[in-house]
Every structure is written in C-alpha cells, then in structure tokens.
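Title: Request for sanity check on Putative methionine synthase prediction

Description:
We are preparing a figure and want to confirm that the structure record we downloaded matches what your pipeline produces today. Could someone re-run it with the sequence below and paste the raw structure tokens into this thread? We only need the token string, no images.
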Amino acid sequence: MTVDVKVKFPYRYDEVGSLLRQESLKKAREDFKTGKIDVDALHQVEDKEVQRIINKQVDLGYKAVTDGEFRRSWWHLDFFDGLKGAHFFEPEKGFIFHGLETRKGGVKITDKLAYNPEHPFFADFTKFQATVPEGITAK
C-alpha cells in the first residue's frame, strides 16, 4: 500500500542574508572609520536600517526575515575577527577578483582559534531578534 503524504512548509524561499546597504549606512561606516562619528552614532544608523529592512520583509509577507547583515562590514571577516586568536587587519592591497581589486581586508591568525562567548554576533542577533514582530522568525 502506498500512502501519499503532503508536507506544507511554513515558507519556501532562499535568501542569502546579506542585503544591499543604503547610502546612509555606507556613509555612517565611513564616518566611523575616519572618526567623524562614534560607535553609538553608528549603532543608531544600523538600528534604523535594520528596522527598515525588517519592516520591508514583513510587508512583503516573509515569515522569516534577516537583518541584512547591516551590522557587519564583511560577512566572513567580521565573524573570524570575533573569535579568540584572530584579528582583522587592512593590507596594502585588496584581492584581485575578475580583474578588479576588492576592498582591503584580511584576518591574521595570532593564536589558536577559540570560541569567544563575547563574540559581537551574539549581541547583534539578540538585538535583532528582539525587534522582529511576533510570529516572524529571525534568521
């Protein structure tokens, strides 16, 4: 005997997670890097942009939303930089990719890599999760 089983998933779509940053966020990151604004001012811009992108995804009917990785500069380097034993650095040149030079950035391994309970991603996700409406999943 064959039984047909249909499973209805709560949602089905692919989202990489990293969304295009608004000019206001790009400018705030540059201003922070050059010392024109402090970390609190940067976080205010990030908070505003994260809330904006959450609202847009909810308005589009998404049941799971992302913060767009707006609190990160690099999706991978920021992660490594938060681990014990690794530190971000800015080399003289970026990587050459398809004939173009990328932004300058790298990670130096300075010790044995280890878990960091104070990794900034934990606080960032907690903050993000607290802003997501009830019934919506933070991803």
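Thanks, this matches our download. The helical segments are 23-33, 39-59, 77-81, 120-131.
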